[in-house]
Amino acid sequence: QVQLVESGGNLVQPGGSLRLSCAASGFTLDHYAIGWFRQAPGKEREGVSCIGKDGTIYYKASVKGRFTISRDNAKKMVTLQMNSLKLEDTAVYYCNLKSGPYDYWGQGTQVTVSS
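^ that's the sequence the OP posted. Answer follows.
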């Protein structure tokens, strides 16, 4: 079955960096786009970045230039490198796979940016 497992979240000071990983299993990663979303307390889940099966990349405007998404199909991994972190980046981060009518989510990983 499809499984997405996020890791790498942590407590970090403003200006710091974190590298999130999304380990994929149960499907052929090469065939799908994978997205990173986040949800801050009291707010709706929002899209942060997405990488297509052809390598096309999208970033939310507020993270462009600070976050970098990449994929390694052989390792079945999608990573999100986050630099110059800001207080407003604090959220639970999720990776997502959309396949037809189905939406798959991981359990999320907590990123807290605090001084």
